[in-house]
Write a structure and sequence with these properties.
With 130 residues, the chain is mainly alpha-helical. The protein has two domains: 38 residues; 66 residues, no CATH class. The chain contains four helices and two strands; from the N terminus they run ααββαα. It has a two-stranded antiparallel sheet. A hairpin with a 2-residue loop joins strand 1 and strand 2. The longest helix is centred in the first third of the chain and has 28 residues. The chain is elongated and about 75 Å long.
Length: 130
């Protein structure tokens, strides 16, 4: 659009990429917030009834021995998944993408656990960085 022959103002139609990005982020956060509120409503009104899964129990027991996770001042937890569990769970539920996500989650937990064990001294206390 030209404002006039002598004004020298020209309107360039440039896409507002930062504006679209911020709008997309706002919309994503809005959906996440209301999704969380919906889940909170379901839990608060007891509309969800947890039930055991025989399929998962079979996969958990078929995988290698569960690894005990010990931390100072925390109860001992057991890690039921390993990298071999991913393909079995994905095949059982028919969701191929789940395999990669399970493998990634197991890797992240193992990495975090190995870092946590390195920081502990032989006396069982965490070392303080100075």
């Amino acid at each position: 659009m030209l404002a006039g022959p002598n004004s020298g103002l020209i309107d360039f139609s440039v896409p507002n990429i930062p504006g679209f990005y911020l709008l997309f982020r706002f919309w994503s956060h809005y959906r996440a917030l209301y999704g969380a509120k919906h889940l909170q409503f379901i839990v608060a009104n007891r509309l969800f009834q947890p039930s055991p899964s025989n399929q998962l129990d079979t996969i958990y027991s078929a995988s290698s021995t569960p690894r005990k996770i010990e931390a100072v001042g925390v109860e001992t937890d057991v890690m039921l998944l390993n990298k071999d569990s991913g393909p079995a769970i994905a095949k059982e539920f028919g969701v191929d993408e789940m395999q990669v996500e399970i493998e990634r989650a197991v890797e992240q937990v193992e990495k975090k656990l190995s870092k946590g064990q390195e920081k502990q001294t032989p006396s069982g206390r965490d070392e303080k960085k100075q």
